[in-house]
Amino acid sequence: MSGPAAARKVIEIKPWADPEAKVYPRSISGIYARWRWIFVWLTQIVFYGLCWLPWRDRQAILFDIDARKFYFFDLVLWPQDTIYLVLLMIIGALALFLFTAVAGRLWCGYACPQTVYTEIFLWFEKVIEGERPQRIKLDAAPWSPRKLAIKSAKHATWIVFSLWTGFTFVGYFTPIRELAHDLLTLSPGAWSAFWVLFYGFATYGNAGFLREQMCRQICPYARFQFVMLDPDTLIIAYDDKRGDPRGARARGVDPRQEKLGDCIDCSICVQVCPTGIDIRNGLQNECIGCAACIDACDQVMDKMDYPRGLIRYSTENAVSRRLTPMDIVRRAFRPRVIVYAAILLALSAATAWSLSTRIPLKVNVLKDRGALSRDADDGSIENIYRLQIMNTGDKTRTFRIRVAGIDGIRLHDDTPITVAGGGIGSLAAGVRADPGAAKSGATPISFSVEDVADAAVAVTEQSKFWMP
To answer: N or C: which end of the chain has fewer CB within 10 A?
Structure first.
């Protein structure tokens, strides 16, 4: 059996023993814990660092809402380029479908902002309040000057970090150096100050208080993930055939003689879980795939001289049928994965090709509605147009303008126009034609705008010439 029906068989959704109980994750070390911190560092270096990166006298990445431009290094996107945002969202959704079908919730466990910032806030909490037993004891103790001082230090650290995060986020929409100067001189704009506080408060609330409740109750991803999983999806799996029946025993005792499995029922896998679940009850929708329980169980197995892997990354079929790692890899290339990958690759390639061949020039031609035509001083018929020339590249360009469509049609002034990178040039263009060169009424004409230094950067726009 495969597909959603089989996936629902894998996912065991259980009511929580006490959904209001606070989760105190125990610290754990191991290969997967190291990978989680590698992703914490990578994501935060990118997030906190890119907004400070200069590029050609401006910020390298900037969503300039006031100017209605998106700068991404040499690429400048305008509101007319919204299609690329739509394509990016579709590519992101397809990537999520593909990665979930292959490897479950790896995004949630390693790179999701909720996971990353919760990990950071837990580290602050551990440094200030101590390990899990000390935190539990401190929360249970009555209020005292010592408890007040410790809690105040923790929350002050959280607030400072949250405000810095909010400031950095807003720095991608407002030039961050200007924003920093305004904040240091206590003269920020009302909207900038509001959004810094808003996103700072969101970080403080989500990572400091909501934590596992965000994954349990608020995030919709956990609710619809089962439609993307099947028995060959990589998940956090407890090998119940090997581990059960559970029970405590002395080190060195052969569990088979005691008619026990390898699980010693120490519950450390539950203590390290950031969402507070027991993975031994089966995969649950609260599991974010962080593998903290794998690190914990492997350490226990080492101490007991048992083989590692009682809890491991595996698939439902691999656990039930005792498949080898190569079998897991081979079964990963199944129809839905191939379809997702093919669509994702094709769409990504098409988007990349479109961006790489995109002409950094946009032209709007507007006919003067005040007068359809007029007699020029040389006896010709003149129409007036307003041209808006958008240089969507990053360097200054000079453009020449030509007009065609009627014999003898010409520009009254064909002086080239220079437009700065990311700027808009506007000019009123007088177009003249000899009387009788076209029939009375509207005749189609075309405007060609071309970079004088690069003929490949050229755009042709259509309009109409009115002949009396």
So the answer is: N
Question: Would you list the domain boundaries of the chain?
Answer: 361-467
Q: Are 53 and 59 in contact (CB under 8 A)?
A: yes
Structural contact between residues 16 and 217, judged by C-beta atoms closer than 8 angstroms: no
Amino acid, res. 269: C
The answer on pLDDT for 302 being more than 70 is: yes
Q: How many CB atoms lie within 10 A of CB 327?
A: 15
| Contact yes or no for 109/36 (Cβ under 8 A) | yes
Which run of H or E residues covers position 55?
strand 54-55
pLDDT for 9 equals: 40
Q: Tell me which CATH code domain 361-467 carries.
A: 2.60.40.10
The answer to whether residues 450 and 352 touch, using CB atoms and an 8 Å cutoff, is no
Residues with Cβ within 8 Å of residue 448, at least 6 apart in sequence: 401, 402, 403, 404, 458, 459, 460
CB 417 within 8 A of CB 427: yes
Q: Which residue has the tokens 């002395």?
A: 250
For 132-168, write each residue's pLDDT tens digit. 999 999 999 999 999 999 999 999 999 999 999 999 9
pLDDT digit string (tens) for 50-109? 999 998 888 999 998 887 888 888 888 888 788 888 999 999 989 988 999 999 888 899
Rounded CA separation 69/219 (Å): 31
Would you call 168 exposed, middle or buried from its count of C-beta atoms within 10 A (0-12, 13-18, 19+)?
buried
pTM score, whole prediction? 0.82
Q: Rounded to an integer, what is the distance from CA 154 to the centroid of its chain?
A: 29
Helix (H, G, I), strand (E, B) or coil at 309: coil
Neighbouring CB atoms inside 10 A of 117's CB total 23
Helix axes 113-129, 132-140, angle to 10 degrees: 70
The whole-angstrom separation of Cα 303 and Cα 252 is: 10
Helix (H, G, I), strand (E, B) or coil at 290: coil
* 289 Ramachandran zone, left/alpha/beta (phi>0; psi -120 to 50): left
- Which residues, 6+ apart, have CB-to-CB distance to 62 below 8 Å? 51, 69, 70, 71, 172, 173, 175
For 75, left (φ over 0), alpha (ψ -120 to 50), or beta?
beta
CB of 388 closer than 8 Å to CB of 348: no
What integer pLDDT is reported at residue 50 of this predicted model?
Answer: 94
Helices (H), strands (E): how many in the chain?
17, 16
Q: What is the CA radius of gyration of the chain?
A: 32
